């Protein structure tokens, strides 16, 4: 079978499968034609609107599989009556049915409008009140369960619509939310449909094994709920999975089983898909007579329901089969029908619709929500206008108060920052756990300088704005006052943001520089490594403006978080990076007068990698490397190759002990004249 066929099947199935089986399956059963005729006769004579709403509901369900126009008509009747009775859950459910019909016609804007309104109603707990005939939604009589069942089904169908119109990730998130809701109330029918649609996502992504597991889960929930109505679609889906597994015999078994179930329950839209896929299967088996029979049956169903978006492909397939059977007249006839119908579906209106979808499904939803909010606030405008004058003065007072208070907080933060930095410096010196204290302090100072500059600058700007606002108040220019007030509020938010940023930097570094508490915590290795790389570089630059080196990083996104003592591993990373900077700087100094001056570029590379259940942090330099004669001594306490006064000889020794205490390993690879690579290996658990 053509590789695109499962995707075509998936898109059509998820839109054709109407989710009317609210709650337990016994609530909804497809009525027969005789029963439908009886319901129509009753509708002509019964005047009671409550009963009429129930009759229209059953007729809308019936015609969903017979005639989409009639299903939409009776759905609109239910919507009208539900609004008359102010029963929100019935209104949301009617909108859901109508959206399904709109989707079948490819009228996605109307489907979006109906789904959006249904979702908004069902998300409001007020619709748990006044649920007429709650047994139509859930047999346990719980209004909360009834609302969540409707909401979950809205999410499922809404997710399918998002997927069909290109926003697949949002479609998946909607379906996952539906599954979460269904699990919370243990509704097996809705769980079954949720797992079916998620299986579709996996099949579309060629994750066949996952699709198989999920469709089996869907069938298990359907069996547990005795939900048989749409089993034809479930089995047909299973057939496509087996087809992807290259097992045509199993595929044929499930296609036939699906067709049997669809005909048994009069779910004609699914029967049409069952017929088509059997026709396609037999065509690939070169059984052309059987292929022609089933494809022709598929065409009859698509014409009668109708399913306009299925017909062009069905016509095209019939043309191919007749061509294979050497019947050119029939082949030409159906090819022309296919082209003609495709042209009609792709007229100017359809082109505009596709543009509507590609310009942003989310944007349309946002505009609708804004319009609803505008309607809700219209009645409040008069009251707000009366309070506007008083509100302006209150806002000004609050702004002045917040500005003064924020400056006080900022001053305290600065004072605390200075005190904490001094305490940190003293502690680090006394413990001798960092030989590069000067670089670290300078790095921290560089990190907090920018937010502190922002705080001071925006505070000065706010002072000028408030003076200007006071003048405009005197002039009675409320429009300008509001504009200035907005600017002041925006600036206050920036002051608060940058003040907190400076505070967070100091607190973070204090945390990394405290004495070992012995408590491990989940830590983002990439973030930790990047933080200490920046601090080391800025610190060294603050001490020596002539220092410069190219920094290269390659952080593996799969590393994630592991349990470590962050301040200890931070010390190790900082020590290794400082050593690398020292190595490349020394090599540059000794080659500055030679012929390779323009060739050598000091380079330090810092990488992280997840490898065989371990996390690797490597620091590589292109310095002079470590002489082989001293390589065995570099991890010994007090051993250093630096000149007297430039190193304590404790850095690598302490680093080695810290990594060992974490159950890890610190290794070095070096080549004289070319550089060194230090690697930290840590277990992920």
* Shape descriptor: extended
pLDDT < 50 stretches: 1-12, 18-29, 348-353, 355-360
CATH homologous superfamily annotation of the largest domain: Tetratricopeptide repeat domain
Q: Helix count, per DSSP?
A: 24
**What oligomeric state best describes the polypeptide chains here?**
single chain
> Regarding CATH, which class of the largest domain?
Mainly Alpha
Characterization of the model:
The N terminus is likely disordered. The radius of gyration is 35 Å and the shape is extended. The protein has 4 domains: 172 residues, Serine Threonine Protein Phosphatase 5, Tetratricopeptide repeat; 95 residues, Tetratricopeptide repeat domain (Serine Threonine Protein Phosphatase 5, Tetratricopeptide repeat, Alpha Horseshoe), CATH 1.25.40; 132 residues, no CATH class; 163 residues, Heat Shock Protein 90. The longest helix is centred in the middle third of the chain and has 51 residues. It contains 24 helices and 7 strands. The strands form 2 sheets. A 5-stranded mixed beta sheet has the order 2-4-5-7-6. The protein is α+β, with helices and mostly antiparallel strands.
List keywords for this structure.
685 residues; alpha+beta; Serine Threonine Protein Phosphatase 5, Tetratricopeptide repeat; 7 strands; 69% helix; 7% strand; two-stranded antiparallel ribbon; disordered N terminus; five-stranded mixed beta sheet
Brief rundown of the structure:
By secondary structure, this protein is of the alpha+beta class. It has helices at residues 5-16, 33-45, 49-64, 68-85, 88-104, 108-123, 143-164, 168-185, 188-204, 208-224, 231-244, 248-264, 268-284, 288-304, 311-324, 328-345, 348-358, 361-377, 381-431, 437-475, 478-513, 525-543, 566-591, 651-661; strands spanning 521-524, 550-555, 561-564, 603-611, 614-621, 665-671, 675-683.
């Amino acid at each position: 079978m053509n590789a695109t066929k499962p995707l075509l099947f998936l898109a059509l199935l998820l839109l054709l499968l109407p989710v009317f089986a609210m709650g337990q399956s016994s609530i909804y059963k497809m009525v027969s034609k005789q029963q439908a005729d009886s319901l129509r006769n009753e509708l002509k004579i019964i005047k009671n609107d409550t009963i009429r709403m129930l009759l229209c509901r059953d007729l809308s369900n019936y015609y969903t599989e017979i005639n989409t126009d009639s299903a939409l008509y009776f759905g609109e009747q239910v919507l009208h009556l539900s609004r008359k009775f102010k029963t929100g859950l019935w209104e949301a459910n009617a909108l859901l049915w109508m959206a399904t019909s709109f989707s079948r016609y490819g009228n996605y804007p109307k489907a979006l409008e109906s789904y959006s309104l249904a979702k908004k109603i069902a998300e409001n707990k007020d619709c748990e009140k006044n649920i007429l005939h709650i047994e139509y939604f859930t047999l346990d009589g719980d209004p909360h369960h009834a609302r969540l069942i409707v909401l979950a089904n809205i999410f499922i169908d809404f997710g399918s619509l998002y997927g069909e119109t290109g926003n697949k990730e949002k479609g998946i998130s909607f379906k996952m939310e539906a599954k979460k809701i269904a699990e919370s109330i243990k509704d097996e029918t809705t769980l079954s449909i949720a797992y079916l649609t998620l299986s579709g996502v996996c099949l579309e992504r060629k994750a066949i094994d996952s699709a198989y597991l999920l469709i089996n889960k869907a069938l298990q929930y359907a069996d547990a709920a005795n939900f048989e109505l749409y089993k034809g679609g479930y089995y047909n889906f299973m057939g496509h999975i087996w087809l992807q597994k290259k097992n045509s015999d199993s595929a044929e078994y499930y296609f036939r089983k699906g067709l049997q179930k669809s005909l048994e329950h009069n779910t004609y839209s699914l029967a049409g898909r069952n017929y088509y896929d059997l026709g396609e299967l037999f065509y690939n088996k070169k059984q052309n007579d059987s292929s022609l029979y089933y494809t022709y049956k598929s065409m009859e169903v698509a014409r009668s329901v109708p399913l306009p978006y299925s017909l062009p492909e069905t016509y095209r397939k019939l043309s191919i089969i007749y061509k294979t059977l050497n019947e050119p007249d029939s082949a030409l006839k159906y090819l022309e029908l296919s082209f003609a119908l495709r042209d009609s579906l792709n007229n100017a209106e359809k082109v505009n619709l596709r543009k509507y979808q590609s310009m942003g499904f989310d944007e349309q939803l946002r505009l609708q929500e804004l319009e609803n909010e505008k309607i809700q606030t219209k009645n409040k405008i008069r009251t707000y206008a009366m309070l506007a004058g008083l509100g302006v003065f209150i806002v000004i007072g609050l702004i002045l108060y917040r500005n003064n208070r924020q400056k006080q907080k900022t001053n305290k933060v600065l004072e605390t920052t200075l005190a904490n930095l001094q305490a940190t410096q003293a502690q680090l010196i006394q413990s001798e756990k960092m030989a590069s204290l000067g670089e670290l302090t300078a790095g921290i100072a560089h990190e907090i300088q920018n937010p502190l500059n922002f705080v001071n600058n925006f505070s000065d700007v706010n002072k000028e704005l408030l003076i200007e606002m006071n003048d405009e108040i005197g002039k009675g220019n409320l429009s300008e006052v509001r504009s200035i007030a907005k600017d002041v509020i925006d600036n206050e938010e920036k002051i608060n943001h940058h003040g907190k940023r400076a505070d967070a930097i100091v607190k973070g570094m204090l945390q990394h520089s405290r004495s070992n508490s012995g408590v491990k915590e989940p830590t983002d290795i990439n973030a930790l490594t990047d933080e200490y790389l920046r601090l080391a570089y800025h610190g060294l630059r603050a001490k020596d403006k002539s220092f410069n080196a190219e920094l290269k990083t390659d952080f593996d996104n799969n590393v994630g978080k592991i349990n470590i003592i962050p301040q200890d591993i931070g010390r190790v990373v900082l020590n290794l990076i400082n050593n690398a900077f020292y190595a490349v700087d020394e090599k540059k100094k000794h080659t500055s007068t030679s012929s390779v001056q323009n060739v050598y570029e000091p380079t330090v590379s810092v990488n992280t990698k997840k490898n065989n259940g371990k996390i690797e942090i490597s620091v590589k330099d292109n310095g002079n490397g470590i002489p082989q004669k001293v390589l065995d001594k570099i991890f010994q306490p007090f051993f250093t190759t630096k000149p007297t006064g430039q190193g304590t000889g404790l850095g690598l020794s302490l680093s080695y002990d810290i990594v060992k205490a974490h159950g890890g390993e610190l290794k070095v690879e070096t080549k004289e004249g070319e550089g060194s690579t230090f690697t930290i290996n840590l277990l992920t658990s």
